[in-house]
Amino acid sequence: MPFKDKIIKEKVPQHIAIIMDGNGRWAQQKGEHRIYGHTAGVESVREALTAAAEIKVKYLTLYAFSTENWNRPKEEVDALMDLLVKTITSEVDSLNKKGVRLEVIGDMDSLPPGCKQALEESKKATANNTNITLILALSYSSRWEITNAIKKIATDIEEKKIAPKEINDALVSSYLNTANFPDPELLIRTSGECRISNFLLWQVAYSELYFTEVLWPDFKKENLYEAVYQFQSRERRFGKTSEQLLENE
Ligand code: FPP
């Protein structure tokens, strides 16, 4: 039976985050340049987004470019930015048809002006869509995000907008780039690497982690459904005992 048919509709995670990894290795295995892998990876972005929307996931966050990725060869960085601009611009109609709202987290000011502008335009053009929110993490790193949050909290204390005793989980969350989104229940990483790589460190506190050997360009709808199926077979206890969970059902 296909994994999609095994998924329990009422227990679909509302937010899935994905570390899309393995584009470079996929291309190199084929004797091609790494950029060929990133281009092929765009199709997997479509597959993951369509699959997520079909099972009514409400938020899909994709780690498209990390702060550390700026250290890659200039040729690769330029090609990735170019690919992003082209994809975001050419996909707007399709996003609108599918009811996808585009959002971005990360250091927008570090992006090339053309890329920033394309993102702003696509965000605006899709702002009223309600089926699913696609959150692209671009020039993003979690330590950067948390450091910024701490700076803003310190400033707001200095300016007497908040008092130190008001600081709690919810307040910290509200200072993060992800303030308007729920935490992901499921984090997927492709390509066999078992690391978080500076991605959503605060937000994945209680997320289920799912690692697959599949390289990102080979990731298809069925792979996402398999991850959701595995997620549903796990018990999420949030520090409680199994018995306590049963009592609360
Ligand atoms: C990781 O593979 C992938 C990236 C750093 C870029 C992801 C970008 C895309 C899939 C294309 C554009 C995306 C959107 C949202 C339009 P890697 O290069 O680190 O692979 P490797 O570990 O095999 O070297």
Could you please describe the fold and organization of this structure?
The relative contact order is 0.19. The two termini are 29 Å apart. The chain has a 6-stranded parallel beta sheet with strand order 3-4-2-1-5-6, with helices on both faces. Strand 3 (100-105), helix 6 and strand 4 form a beta-alpha-beta unit. It is built from 10 helices and 6 strands, in the order H-E-H-H-E-H-H-E-H-E-H-H-E-E-H-H. The protein has helices at 3-6, 23-29, 34-54, 74-90, 92-98, 113-126, 142-158, 169-174, 221-232, 242-248, and strands at residues 15-19, 59-66, 100-105, 132-140, 186-189, 208-211. Helix 2 packs across helix 3 and helix 3 (34-54) runs parallel beside helix 4 (74-90). The chain has one domain (14-230): Undecaprenyl pyrophosphate synthetase (3-Layer(aba) Sandwich). It has 249 residues and is of the alpha/beta class. It binds farnesyl diphosphate.
Descriptors:
binds farnesyl diphosphate; 249 residues; 45% helix; alpha/beta; 6 strands; 6-stranded parallel sheet
Q: Which helices and strands occur, and which strands form pairs?
A:
Elements: H1 3-6, E1 15-19, H2 23-29, H3 34-54, E2 59-66, H4 74-90, H5 92-98, E3 100-105, H6 113-126, E4 132-140, H7 142-158, H8 169-174, E5 186-189, E6 208-211, H9 221-232, H10 242-248
Parallel strand pairs: 1-2, 1-5, 2-4, 3-4, 5-6
Residues 20-25, 34, 38, 41-42, 45, 62, 64, 69, 83-84, 87, 136, 191, 216 line the site of farnesyl diphosphate (FPP).
